[in-house]
Structures are given as structure tokens and as C-alpha cells.
């Protein structure tokens, strides 16, 4: 499997893992791992900071796909295939048609902004 094909699969697998979180048939261990992966992916804190040349981006290029692959192995195949079909429907027109999947990301950044403002106001 070449790099282009892996990237295409990742484009389907990431939303499929997110969709699998909503399924009751997904094991709790896979849900916990998936939430940790999502939190790490959205977190501004990386294992290797991005300002370190080359190594900072290798963290995102190697660690996240590896964690997603592990989460995929923990999700039962029948659940994952159903979730992949749903995820493919998201990308039919070249972009996701369900924009509300961005809400957790927006909520996360709003939460960071809230705590940053609260910290700066009360630290004076």
C-alpha cells in the first residue's frame, strides 16, 4: 500500500472511528482509546512539540495514524465496516456534508479561550 492510498484510507478511517463512538456495539475499551486519540489530536500539546524541526511534525505523521490503526483493531469488523460506509457518505461531494462534526473541535477551542481569558483576568 503506497502513501497516497494510506492517506485516502485515513480520510475514511478517522471519521469512521468517530462514528463508531456512537455505536452501542463498540466495546468500551475502543471508545476510551478513541476519545484519548481525539483528545490528543485536538490538543495543542504534542508529545514532541511542533517547533522542533522535522521531529515535531513526525509526531503527527507517525503517532496519530498508528494510534488510529490500534483503535481500528479494537473495533469489531462488522461495526467498523458499517462506520466506514457512513464515513464514505460524508465525503461524497469532496467535503463532509455533516458540518456539525466540527462542533467538538469548536467547543474544545472555545474552552481553551475561556480558560485563557479567565487565567489572564484573575492573574492580575
What structural category arises from helix and sheet content? Answer: mainly alpha
Question: Topology as H/E string?
Answer: HHHHH
Gyration radius, rounded: 17 Å
Q: Total number of helical segments?
A: 5
Beta content comes to under 5%
Query: What's the helical proportion of residues?
Result: over 70%
Average pLDDT number: 81
Spatial separation of the terminal alpha carbons: 55 Å
The total domain count is 1
Structural shape: globular
Q: How many beta strands in the DSSP annotation?
A: 0
| Biggest sheet overview | none
As residue ranges, the low-confidence spans are none
Fold and architecture overview:
This protein has one domain (3-122). The protein is 70% helix and 0% strand. It has helices at 3-20, 28-42, 55-74, 77-90, 103-122. α1 packs across α3 (55-74), α1 crosses α4 and α2 (28-42) packs antiparallel against α3 (55-74). It is globular, with a radius of gyration of 17 Å. The termini are far apart. The relative contact order is 0.14. The mean pLDDT is 81.
